[in-house]
Write a structure and sequence with these properties.
Elements lengths: L14 H15 L1 E2 L10 H7 L1 E2 L1 H14 L4 E13 L5 E15 L3 E6 L4 E2 L4 E7 L31
Helix pairs in contact: 1-3, 2-3
């Protein structure tokens, strides 16, 4: 896969604009693939496949930003989204999600969602932020000689209407 996250006319010397252009380029050229197996692909593997999970494309962006000399980190958290039923009733859903944060001078750390190509918003709830994905796992640990089951259930509702 030939990866061209931004075209020459999109590169303007404005760091926020440049990072947004790279984010849009990743969203456009790396197809979202839901992967349930653990781990994060290397940037090379994500580019070779032309697809990846949110973890994979976020890690790709972190590496691209660092290559360009910018501070970047990996974020793991929840993405809360709203949808309307046929009866126009709001239903909220929440899923584990990953995105990148880039430090923009005079603005601070800004989140970039590489699956949508947009900046993160109120629906992005960070759980862990780290330099590397393996340090931002929402759940981690070690087991030795035991049988274990892990079940998670999540309900999302608005506190205020």
């Amino acid at each position: 896969m030939t990866f061209s996250p931004i075209t020459p006319w999109e590169w303007g010397g404005d760091m926020l604009g440049d990072m947004m252009a790279i984010n849009r380029g990743i969203a456009r050229q790396v197809s979202y693939q839901r992967r349930l197996e653990p781990g994060v692909w290397s940037p090379e593997e994500t580019l070779r496949n032309g697809a990846g999970s949110c973890r994979d494309s976020a890690w790709l962006f972190v590496n691209m930003a660092r290559y360009l000399g910018h501070a970047a980190r990996f974020v793991s958290g929840y993405l809360i989204q709203s949808a309307l039923t046929a009866d126009t009733e709001e239903v909220l859903t929440g899923e584990l999600h990953a995105w990148a944060q880039i430090f923009i001078p005079e603005r601070g750390w800004l989140g970039f969602d590489t699956t949508s190509g947009l900046l993160t918003g109120e629906g992005h709830i960070p759980l862990a932020v780290a330099a590397r994905p393996e340090n931002a796992a929402p759940v981690s640990g070690l087991l030795d000689r035991c049988n274990a089951t892990f079940n998670v259930s999540m309900k999302v509702e608005r506190l205020f209407t």
